[in-house]
Amino acid sequence: MTVIIQKPEFNLREKLSELEFARLPYEKMPIGSVLQVQYAQTRTQQSTTSSTFTDATNMFVDISPRFASSKMLITVHTVGQVSSGRARFDIHKSTTNARISAHPSGNNTDHGISAFEGNGINHVVHFTIRDTADTTALIRYKLQFNNTGGNTTFIQASYSVGTITVMEIKQ
Length: 171
Prior knowledge:
It is a single chain. The chain is mostly beta strands. It starts with 11 loop residues before the first helix and ends with a strand. The mean pLDDT is 88.
């Protein structure tokens, strides 16, 4: 006994042209894909004499991750200067209300991501750190800085450009 199965014919080229390749679903993107990028910059010189971490004006990014499992790659660039003491820099994450580098014995003064000393010298402050989103709700990542000796720390010194970039990386 012979069985004959018939399927309707279709044109493969026609079916492929119906697909919208300009928008690949995020779920189908491979691990390591950059899902989105948010960026901010400022030229506003600012300073603090606080020994506790202080928000840097206009140095923040708001991002709503597509996946809670995504890694967030945060890059900061600015120029800083101290009158004396040590400048420290960190990133504050709104959803945990904590600094990313928060040390278990942290006292809101020590243990930043980056630091420098050197009276009256412009220093390039550039760092990249990775975080896990742990949510799909809006996250605000913001730069914070201090001067551990209570002296003056400037950022965007000499009115240079300060930038913060956050990239969501699929896991």
